[in-house]
Amino acid sequence: MAAALHVEKPAQPQLAKHDSSILDLAFAMDCTGSMGSYIESATQNIRAIVEEIVTSEKSDIHLALVEYRDHPPQENTFVIRVHDFTGSVKEMKGWLEQCEASGGGDTPEAVADALHGVLKLSWRPEATKICVLISDAPPHGLDPNCGDGFPDGDPSGIDPIKTVRDMAEKQITLYCVGVEPPIVPYRDFFMTLAYLTGGQYVPMVNAKLLAQVIIGGVREEISLERLMKDAEEDIQKEMAQAEADGINEEEITARVNRLLVTKNLRVKQMENLGGATSSAAKELYSKCVDMSELRSRYKPEPVPEPVYHSRMATRASYRRGAGLMDKVKTDCAGGDDANSEEEAPAFAPVAAPAAPITEMTYDLREDEAVSMAQTERIVQRMRYKK
Predict the structure, then answer these.
(1) Are residues 178 and 305 in the same domain?
(2) Residue 117 domain flag
(3) Alpha-carbon span 213 to 270, nearest angstrom
(4) Residue 6 falls within a domain, yes or no?
(5) How far is CA 254 from CA 91, 222, 242, 247, 331, in A?
(6) How far separated are the first and last CA of the chain, in Å rounded?
(7) Do 176 and 282 have their domain in common?
(8) Mutual orientation of helices 36-57 and 89-98 as an angle, nearest 10°?
(9) Looking at the predicted structure, is the pLDDT value of residue 345 above 50?
(10) pLDDT tier for residue 319 given thresholds of 50, 70 and 90
């Protein structure tokens, strides 16, 4: 097992064992030609990312990296390169420095192989397990109209839907960072992957914000993991009773949310406007047993016009303007997002000359009631708890 991670941080008292978080954080990164700015951002910020998490969450972190490109003849360098978990930030930084954005061939890339490589990493059983997948292209076998050199699926035979369900079984939470706009036609697919593991899809239009997303997402996940451990028995009882009553998924989530709110449990929340899971991902694609079934049902989204935002508009109006409503429910219990115009000010599309969406941030709120979106993710993950 790799040694504990050593980073410079402010002096603090010796921590009791139960005060620290054991965290395994893996990156699956598209290393084809269009991804240079994201590789550079990860390389420049990896030490700051780790130091922030260690200092704020008192974490023992191990890091891993899976680089991926594509299969021959589309790409002749490598399909994936796997760097298993290390406790050394210097080693991780060295791996990133060796990454080079090059090649790629057709539009799809070896996403399936990358996810399988992540699944096979040396995850510590007791750790909070998070994978950050950074991508701007779909897997093979999803969209026959995108110039796919392997339209029947990944030539390795790996099925990304089955692989992600295996990740969920191992309690690996997947964050899909989708580089927009190129990923937009396949956004529902990546939302589905994240949803199946109880994770999040995060739209990304500015590589400089990658560090903020990683820090915010990891800190939110650690807080959810702590909540689940503290309230696991009560959540399982509530879910079992709800299922015995024969109620639908939405009402199960609402019941668990009421339980958590009544217990006054508090968590961290990263603002993730535009990342709300679509109804297609939740109600259709996540029910598919494999990639073949999903492909037969999948409808790529059109790339939208550029979106502008203002901090003086609501989250609901942002989603409507960005074409993301699609029956998405509000994070607040008891209402539809389309009617929830009294939410706190957030980004939303407005007429020019508002600032472009590239200025969006992913602010982390430190002490919040558990939202419906978070509860939905908790319920999804609890289903895989042994």
Answers:
(1) no
(2) yes
(3) 8
(4) no
(5) 44, 22, 10, 11, 10
(6) 25
(7) no
(8) 170
(9) no
(10) very low
Give the residue-averaged pLDDT of 269-273.
93
Span 342-368, average pLDDT: 56
Q: How many residues does the chain have?
A: 386
Using the Cα atoms of residue 105, residue 108, residue 112 and residue 115 in order, give the sign of their dihedral: positive
Residue 258 pLDDT more than 80? Answer: yes
Question: Which residue is listed with tokens 């420049």?
Answer: 44
- Beta-strand runs (E) in the chain: 21-30, 59-68, 80-86, 128-135, 172-179, 200-204, 266-270, 308-309, 355-356, 364-369
Within 13 Å, how many C-alpha atoms sit on residue 33's CB side? 8
pLDDT of residue 158: 98
- pLDDT at residue 168 tops 60: yes
> Residue 2 CB: number of other CB atoms within 10 A?
15
Question: What range does the domain containing 282 cover?
Answer: 231-382
Q: Identify whether 77 is part of a domain.
A: yes
Look-up: residue for tokens 């991508």?
A: 135
Q: Is the pLDDT of residue 348 over 60?
A: no
Indicate whether 284 pLDDT > 80: yes
How many structural domains compose the chain?
2
Residues 286 and 278: their CA atoms lie apart, in Å, by 11
- Do 169 and 236 fall within a single domain? no
Mean pLDDT of the chain: 83
Interhelix angle 111-119/160-169, rounded to 10 degrees, is 20
Q: Is residue 240 situated within a structural domain?
A: yes
How far apart are alpha carbons 39 and 93 in whole angstroms?
Answer: 11
What residue has token string 């994240």?
194
| CATH code where residue 96 lies | 3.40.50.410
For residue 128, the tally of other CB atoms under 10 A from its CB is: 23
pLDDT recorded at residue 385 = 79
Same domain, 239 and 198: no
